[in-house]
Amino acid sequence: MYLNIMAKIYEFKMYLLEFRNDQRGVTAVEYAIIAVAMSAIILVVFKNGDLKQALVDAVTAVKSNIGTANQPGQ
User: Fold this and answer.
1) pLDDT tens-digit series, residues 51-60
2) Measured between alpha carbons, how far is residue 3 from residues 11, 13, 63, 65 in Å?
3) What's the pTM value of the predicted model, to 2 decimals?
């Protein structure tokens, strides 16, 4: 019984060491921080609405082109 307890303690210790040394999520967190910073910069640069209007105009143009392309007899 004593050996079973010691084995479980050792397994838990190894698990904690592996968890502490795990670097898999670090890159995702770094990319998230960079994405937030880039979003803030883009919002500050295009604060006056020029980008929004350009995107609305582009979507409207694509929508009208798709609508005219789908009309029969053309």
Assistant:
1) 778 878 888 9
2) 12, 15, 72, 75
3) 0.37
